[in-house]
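Field log, afternoon session.

UNIT: design team B
ACTIVITY: writing a sequence onto a fixed backbone
BACKBONE:
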């Protein structure tokens, strides 16, 4: 398979912080011309069987997927896993442990918001949650928009949910080593998600890429909904430098919130190894 493939290997359903079901996403991806699809819910693979069955019903090739939250150099980083065995016990256990602290963290976030006069945010956010183990900042953001505190979710994150703001609670997720090992030991490929989104110094970013590679990580997202055209070029260069394959995914969450639709990204730039070349024998048809 070549570079020129409408692969969309990153999106979210109601099983994490998206607003569409796995079936609705499959239909939307298919309608938008996606030729290879993966559902990558945060820290959760509970939607994989539904996504795979729906993809098959559309005749759309499918890779299993997830997006694991890790902590690296004091920041939250996301590692996408593709093409793993979704019944792997160690991976399921690792993801369960990663989800474990979310309820408590959400209660603390709510207390932080109450201190600045926003009451009932935990209960409010819960109304948007599809999976009780996966209450996320996104659900708080939806509640604060609906209750008129902010105009859109971007404003909620800026004013309330990022480092130093009243609803932000520092959290320790999985380690880089664990996430990469769970994915690779289950037969999948680990991928650094949207690298331009982190606020690392060049030295920290170099450390992330080197350690990721040393643990067995094999790819990086180059074309994603959260990169600019200049960032496609920068991370294509990084992929070359670290001999990593390249991935492509919209990170679609919701028709109302996501600015990049499923299947609507530019193709991967030339001369990169597409991650789907590493995963040819893991594709479900
Ligand atoms: P959590 O896993 O609970 O920390 O929530 C992280 C999620 O919040 C991400 O996966 C995004 O969906 C969303 N998010 C993070 N930053 C922003 C932002 N600046 N604007 C909108 N959504 C964001
Ligand atoms: Mn998300
Ligand atoms: Mn992410
Ligand atoms: Mn994502």
């Amino acid at each position: 398979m070549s570079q020129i493939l409408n692969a969309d290997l990153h999106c979210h359903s109601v099983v994490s912080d998206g607003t569409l079901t796995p079936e609705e996403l499959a239909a939307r991806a298919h309608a938008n011309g996606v030729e290879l699809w993966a559902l990558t819910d945060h820290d959760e693979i509970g939607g994989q069987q539904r996504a795979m069955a729906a993809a098959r019903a559309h005749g759309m090739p499918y890779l299993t997927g997830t997006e694991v939250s890790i902590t690296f150099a004091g920041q939250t980083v996301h590692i996408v896993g593709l093409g793993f065995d979704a019944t792997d016990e160690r991976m399921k256990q690792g993801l369960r442990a990663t989800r474990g602290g979310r309820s408590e963290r959400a209660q603390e976030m709510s207390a932080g918001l109450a201190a600045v006069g926003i009451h009932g945010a935990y209960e409010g956010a819960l109304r948007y949650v599809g999976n009780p183990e996966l209450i996320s900042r996104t659900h708080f953001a939806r509640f604060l928009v609906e209750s008129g505190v902010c105009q859109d979710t971007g404003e909620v994150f800026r004013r309330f949910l990022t480092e130093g703001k009243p609803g932000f609670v520092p959290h320790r997720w999985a380690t880089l080593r664990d996430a990469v090992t769970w994915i690779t030991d289950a037969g999948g490929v680990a991928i650094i998600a949207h690298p331009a989104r982190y606020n690392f110094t060049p030295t920290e970013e170099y450390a992330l890429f080197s350690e990721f590679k040393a643990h067995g990580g094999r790819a990086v997202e180059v074309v994603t909904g959260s990169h600019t055209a200049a960032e496609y070029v920068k991370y294509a260069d990084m992929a070359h430098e670290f001999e990593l394959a390249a991935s492509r995914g919209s990170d679609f969450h919701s028709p109302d919130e996501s600015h990049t639709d499923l299947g609507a990204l530019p193709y991967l730039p030339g001369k990169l190894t597409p991650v789907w070349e590493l995963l040819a024998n893991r594709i479900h048809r």
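LOG NOTE: The pocket of adenosine monophosphate (ligand 1) is lined by residues 17, 42, 69, 136-138, 153-154, 157, 253 (CB under 6 Å).
NEXT ACTIVITY: expression trials, pending approval
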